[in-house]
Amino acid sequence: MRDNPLVLHVLGARPNFVKAAPVVRALDELGIRQGIIHTGQHYDALMSDVFFADLGLPEPIANLGVGSGTHARQTAALLTGLEDVVLEHRPALVVVYGDVNSTLAAILVCAKLHVPTAHVEAGLRSFDREMPEEVNRVVTDALSDLLFATSPEALSHLANEGVDPAKVHLVGNPMIDSLFAALPKLDPAPVRERLGIDGTYAVATLHRPANVDDPEAARELVDAVLGVAEQVPVVVPLHPRGRQRLAEAGLVNRPGLQIIDPLGYVDFLSLVRGAALVVTDSGGVQEETTMLGVPCLTVRPNTERPITVTHGTNRLVTPASLPAAASKALADGAATPSGELPPLWDGAAGPRIARVIEAWLRGDSLSPAAKGRVQ
Question: What is the set of domains in the chain, with CATH numbers?
Answer without folding.
Answer: 6-172+345-373 (3.40.50.2000), 182-332 (3.40.50.2000)
